[in-house]
Amino acid sequence: MLRAKKKLWSPFSKRLLPTRTISSTTCGFLQNQQQHLSNSQRHSSFPFFSYNNNKIQTSSSSGFSSRFLFFSGKSFCSAQSSEKTNLRCWNCNAEPQNAPFLVCESCTTIQPVDHSVDYFQIFGLENKYEMEEDHNLEVKYKNWQKKLHPDLVHSKPEKEREFAAEQSARVIDAYRTLNNALSRAIYILKLEGVNVNEEETVSEPELLAEIMEIREAVEEAPDYQALKEIQSLVQEKLQNWSDYFASALRGHKFEEAKNCIRRMTYYDRVNEEIVKRL
Ligand SMILES: [Zn+2]
């Protein structure tokens, strides 16, 4: 395995990584591997790599589909829906008590989808790429599903059953999108009005060669432990590009941000392959 690892850490990586992360990823990676690993395990925004948590891992494995986002593209900076003065429950006419208004607090009736409420607002989170450690996304997601699940309204009128199906699907989509660093990056750029063409590839021979090497190592990995070691390398790469993306986003350097996303996509896909084999 050590041989495979050394192979992965070819000089390619030096040239491919953003300048500011080179020191932490090329020098002494092997020595600090344990530290890196534990750092990333703590990083709750990276579901793919929280391999101790089967639930999160399962949900993230379908993260790619969640990138096909369903929203109208109209103002995402608008105030939360409940602040709109004319918003009332379609069933009992009560005014919303809380934002966002997905369920009426008075009569528990599920409301129609309001596309001006973005995914961050659904979970009461700040519109920010880097999520706080205590974001409790999974807990909030489950709480919504307890209120919105279509099974809860199977005996209700068709109108509410439709709202339940739509709200529930949107909350699932919101959860999967925000729970994965790559899909969250793509989404937050969309909120900024920047679309990422996911078919657009990187025509950089070094990156492609590196990805091929990683894929080969994955195929040749003799056991679980070997795969985990490769995964931690991929995780490191993803984290570096994710940090670089966050920095580009803060500086409104959207082309740079898109470039980071394209690179993250390669590592994310390789990681999906690893997850399948684990
Ligand atoms: Zn109501």
From TrEMBL:
PROSITE patterns: DNAJ_2 (PS50076). It comes from the Eukaryota. One of its GO terms (biological process) is protein complex oligomerization. Pfam families: HSCB_C. InterPro entries: DnaJ_domain, HscB, HscB_C_sf, HscB_oligo_C, J_dom_sf. Residues 118-191 form the J domain. Gene3D superfamilies: DnaJ domain, HscB, C-terminal domain. Keywords: Chaperone, Cytoplasm, Mitochondrion. It is found in: Cytoplasm; Mitochondrion. SMART domains: DnaJ (SM00271). One of its GO terms (cellular component) is mitochondrion. GO terms for molecular function: ATPase activator activity; protein-folding chaperone binding. NCBIfam families: hscB (TIGR00714). Belongs to the HscB family. This is Iron-sulfur cluster co-chaperone protein HscB, mitochondrial. It comes from Populus euphratica (Euphrates poplar).
